[in-house]
């Protein structure tokens, strides 16, 4: 059975910004892999609001697009 996101019960679905854990969960990567990407300069753009680091929905989309093209042979 395939996994389906229930838009009514998943608060991440309609969010304009994601925390790092939310971004990782949505993109099925570990937080340690996110930090590895960060150290390599390959993470998505982030914004800082006080102590919080957030990734906008648009920046997450652009990051996925860049990495999808990088994976093409």
Question: What can you tell me about this protein's structure?
Answer:
The chain has 73 residues and is α+β, with helices and mostly antiparallel strands. It has one domain. It has helices at 20-27, 31-39, 57-71; strands at residues 17-19, 47-49, 52-56. The protein has a three-stranded antiparallel β-sheet. The longest helix has 15 residues, at 57-71. The N and C termini lie far apart (30 Å).
Question: How are the secondary structure elements laid out?
Answer:
Elements: E1 17-19, H1 20-27, H2 31-39, E2 47-49, E3 52-56, H3 57-71
Antiparallel strand pairs: 1-3, 2-3
Helix and strand run = EHHEEH
Q: Helix coverage percent of residues? A: 40-55%
Regions with pLDDT < 50 over 5+ consecutive residues?
none
Structural class determined from secondary elements: alpha+beta
Tell me the number of structural domains.
Answer: 1
Strand content: 15-25%
Number of helices: 3
Average of pLDDT = 85
Task: Evaluate the radius of gyration.
Answer: 13 Å
What is the compact description of this entry?
This protein is an alpha+beta fold. It has 3 helices and 3 strands. It has one domain (17-71).
List keywords for this structure.
alpha+beta, single chain, 73 residues, 15% strand, three-stranded antiparallel β-sheet
